[in-house]
Write a structure and sequence with these properties.
Layout: E1 4-9, H1 13-22, E2 24-26, H2 28-35, H3 47-51, H4 64-76, H5 84-106, E3 117-121, H6 124-134, E4 141-158, H7 160-167, H8 171-178, E5 190-200, H9 203-216, H10 227-232
Antiparallel strand pairs: 1-3, 1-4, 2-5, 3-5, 4-5
Length: 233
């Protein structure tokens, strides 16, 4: 079974509790299907509305890249000059909005970066990429070894186009990314966009998440039944 890497924010209570209890995590659209949520997924919101989207408009459910979009909106509301790090966060948010707009133009059926689970290959490049992407963004980042257990849609794209667009926002980079073109056959940087569900493959990582949940979210964990409970049941 193929394994991938995925990064979570342990301080995201819902994701941490899901992983500690089931060892699985689902993409935003998949969760909405499971719970019967009727509000628009980010991939269906009008682009102009997306630029000013609030958490309430997607029923409080979010994803890693929607975090960039939300942070962008908050930072742009500041009346003071932004710091260099804050400017970078605004640019990341702008980038994700432009990539979502381009998805609709060049590959509408592809998973949305604003809804999917982001996976990379289980190698040094993938680990470094996730570390660089979410270090300083997530309060408590953790890189997980995972496998896919439910696949609604899975496509791979060369992340090199994302880096190029960040440095020089050319429309052709957006088009090349969504058309699945390889930037450099000698050094492809494949990232996988999944609408579906992943599961942990390392027991030690599940134990680490369980310990974190017990320490930080014990009030939300179900208390084991006592002997009296068992007698009365």
């Amino acid at each position: 079974m193929a394994t991938f890497l995925h990064c979570i924010n342990l301080s995201d209570k819902l994701k941490c509790l899901n992983l500690s209890s089931t060892g699985t995590l689902s993409s935003l659209f998949t969760v909405q299907l499971i719970v019967g949520d009727k509000k628009a997924n980010p991939m269906h919101l009008d682009i102009e509305k997306l630029k000013n989207c609030t958490a309430d408009e997607i029923d409080g459910m979010s994803s890693a890249r929607m975090l960039f979009v939300f942070q962008r909106l908050i930072l742009k509301s500041y009346t003071r000059p932004l710091t260099e790090d804050e400017e970078k966060m605004v640019r990341k948010g702008d980038l994700e909005i432009e990539f979502e707009r381009a998805r609709r133009d060049y590959n509408y059926g592809a998973p949305s970066r604003l809804s999917c689970l982001y996976l990379v290959e289980n190698n040094d490049w993938g680990r470094d990429t996730l570390g660089n992407m979410f270090r300083g963004v997530f309060k408590a980042p953790m890189i997980l070894n995972v496998s896919i257990v439910n696949e609604l849609s899975l496509m791979k794209f060369d992340h090199n186009w994302v880096d190029l667009y960040y440095k020089d926002p050319k429309e052709e980079y957006l088009e090349n990314y969504w058309q699945g073109k390889m930037y450099d056959e000698n050094a492809p940087a494949w990232e996988y966009l999944l609408e579906g569900t992943i599961q942990l493959t390392e027991a030690t990582q599940k134990k680490e998440i369980e310990d974190y949940a017990m320490k930080n979210y014990s009030n939300y964990l179900r208390t084991p039944p006592t002997a009296a409970d068992q007698v009365n049941s």
